[in-house]
Design brief:
This protein is α+β, with helices and mostly antiparallel strands. The protein has a single domain, classed as Heat Shock Protein 90, CATH 3.30.565. 35% of the residues lie in helices and 29% in strands. Strand 4 and strand 5 form a beta hairpin. Helix 1 runs parallel beside helix 2 and helix 2 runs antiparallel to helix 4. The protein is globular, with a radius of gyration of 15 Å.
Length: 151
């Protein structure tokens, strides 16, 4: 893994712009709000993979006309990325398992949405390799929010 100093906010903005076409196909509004210059030491290509996976999942599970918010900030010396959507959220019983390999939170919906259940496991591995974490929570307004924290 190549580690360089780079601006995570710029990577987030560029990746969101690239993912907009997928969102537009479902009439989903993809909003990217970033703090200026959230710099970290890390592998930009691996962290882009994290962003693409999280945004792709959000697009897959957000209904037509929904909204996805990607935002970054720094907090207590760490960089944070948040991907929040207006989808159905994740069953509470499934939340502790979403990062397990091959786990699919909703078998009925999983038949409609392609994937092997590896994406979030890979995302978690990349975060851990960077000394960071990833977490998920359901939002009171519906949908869920994934948070990546990298020191």
């Amino acid at each position: 893994m190549q580690r360089v100093k780079f601006d995570l906010s710029a990577l987030a903005a560029t990746t969101a712009e690239q993912m907009c076409l997928l969102a537009e196909e479902k009439k989903i509004k993809l909003v990217c709000e970033t703090d200026a210059h959230v710099e970290i030491m890390g592998d930009p290509s691996k962290l882009k993979q994290v962003l693409v996976n999280l945004l792709d999942n959000a697009i897959k599970y957000t209904p037509h006309g929904g909204e996805i918010l990607l935002f970054s900030n720094s907090l207590n010396g760490s960089a944070q990325l948040h991907v929040a959507d207006t989808g159905p959220g994740i069953r509470e019983a499934a939340l502790p398992h979403v990062f397990n390999r091959f786990y699919r939170a909703d078998e009925v919906r999983s038949r409609e949405v392609e994937g092997a259940g590896l994406g979030l496991s890979i995302v978690q591995s990349i975060c851990i390799a960077h000394g960071g974490t990833i977490s998920v929570r359901n939002l009171a307004t519906g949908g869920c929010c994934f948070t990546v924290e990298i020191p």
